[in-house]
Write a structure and sequence with these properties.
The chain is of the alpha/beta class and 354 residues long. It folds into 2 domains: 39 residues; 269 residues, NAD(P)-binding Rossmann-like Domain (Rossmann fold, 3-Layer(aba) Sandwich), CATH 3.40.50. 50% of the residues lie in helices and 11% in strands. Strands 3-2-1-4-5-6-7 form a 7-stranded parallel sheet, sandwiched between helices. It starts with a helix and ends in a 10-residue tail after the last strand. The relative contact order is 0.10.
Length: 354
Amino acid sequence: MKLVNLFSRNQSTHPNQNTSRRRLLRTMGISSAAFGATVLGATINSSAARATDSSPQLTAQDTNTTVAQTQDRATRNNKPLSGQVAIVTGGARGIGRAVAVRLAKEGADVAICDIADQISSVPYPMAKAQDMEETVRLIKAEGVRALSVQADVRSRQQMESVARQTIAAFGKVDILVANAGVLTFGWLHEMSDAEWDDVIAVNLSGVAKSMQAVIPHMRKHRYGRIVVINSCNSRFGSAQSASYNASKWGVLGLVKCAAVEYAKEGITVNAINPTGVRTPMIINEATLTWADPNNPSPAAIENYLRNSLNAQNVGLIEPEDVAAGVPFFCSPDSRRITGEAMDIAAGANVRWNS
């Protein structure tokens, strides 16, 4: 306060005193105007402090509780997707679970849906209700809300029910991650109707029906982020997987059409194309036998991916590698990106032109 008193005297004092005051301020690197503002602020703050001297004082316990509550709110609010609501299809396990947990880590409330049942044409074991329960547990462990709905993406009515239940529980839907997918194998001329139809129905039509379920709500609120987990098989052809590759090529066309249709309504639609991923769809006897009948083992498919497809020195990538791309497409940083396909493919994408 001595410094304040020294420089806050009435300006009618002797001119030499004013000159000396200004010279000292310049020596200290402070302008007269800035110092005046500082003095005024100090006076006001001092007065305010005196006025509140008689107010009740917080105890140490009260202070610690208040600080903890404030920090908890700040932590939640500082997460990039705090306050957002997401639906993840095929969320019981694999990439779907990794996406759901990643969105939860980013602060979003997450609803998952999964058929949690076997489709007869699919040659490997599909997810079960217990898998959905585990995903819900992992979501809640991140401190956000979770919802689980058993539903088949092949049914528009069931997907509309998923959307309604999510809105009823959380108030809205901001994000759709269309992840549900299946895989069958066989030469095209030997493929049964079910082996073809079920793959197209889940991987392509299921994505469309999931979009149809949420787009009316997103249009109403003029905001939405749709991310489709597709495949790098949408970039090339391969033997004995015609239904799978055709469905994934079709998804790219669907993504680009939906992106155009809803671009002016605040909705973005994008895709992620992974290379081979370490999931139950890959690590099972049927898939490994298809990949290498002479050596149906995880090591064989790892070696194939590392040596013949991926540019990086890696075979199967992890579900979390794929999930890492989803928050970007859901963030404000990607607001000018729509109709795009991001390859998370360990460099396999260098082997095609578009």
